[in-house]
Design goal:
By secondary structure, the chain is mainly α. It has one domain. Helices cover 61% and strands 0% of the residues. It is built from nine helices and no strands. It is globular and about 45 Å long.
Length: 185
């Protein structure tokens, strides 16, 4: 399996913008949190690497997002099951690779949501999600003009895939972000 350091170097090869690198690290942290929370602690590294690499092709090939990724990942020697997991987060948006495993459903559900939480955190005086409460996040979620690029329907669909109430997904992803938030952001 590709190591975390190798994965991060691979991400940086195709992503130069700090925003995209930061998003990859945040989704990595959220995925690690969920691996442990859901009883997959022995797979934490795997879940984290999938989160880190999920948008590997987005910066350079936005029109081919999740389509170009398999080629880049195969060239780097990434295993097919990891490629499937990474690509499945684009289900219904840019590919027809359906999230099947719980880990893939978590990635699908929390990718957009980490972006929304990150944007909401930047609006706070603290510039952090550490002091954010679910009530505040729900208010931002309902305001479709706020972070308009974060697709609320995908987030809702992700909660449904997992069999969770939307509030549970919002709260757990907020808690996940609190465990991996980077101080400089």
């Amino acid at each position: 399996m590709i190591t975390r350091d190798e994965a991060y170097e691979l991400l940086k090869k195709y992503n130069k913008d700090e925003f995209h690198l930061h998003h990859g690290r945040m989704v990595e942290g959220a995925m690690r949190y969920f691996a442990n929370k859901l009883g997959y602690g022995d797979e934490e590294e795997y879940w984290g690497i999938v989160g880190l690499l999920h948008d590997i092709d987005f910066e350079m090939w936005p029109e081919e997002h999740c389509i170009k990724a398999p080629e880049l990942l195969r060239e780097a020697g990434v295993e097919e099951d990891m490629i499937h997991a990474i690509v499945s987060h684009g289900y219904g948006l840019c590919v027809d690779v359906k999230p099947e495993r719980e880990m893939e459903k978590v990635l699908f559900a929390c990718d957009e949501l980490t972006g929304l939480i990150g944007a909401a955190a930047l609006m706070r005086p603290s510039k952090s999600c550490q002091d954010m409460e679910l009530k505040s996040l729900k208010k931002k979620f309902k305001d479709k003009r706020f972070a308009a690029g974060c697709d609320r329907e995908v987030i809702k669909q992700g909660a449904e895939m997992l069999g969770w109430e939307l509030d549970e997904l919002l709260n757990e992803t907020l808690e996940a972000m609190k465990t991996c938030e980077e101080p400089e952001c």
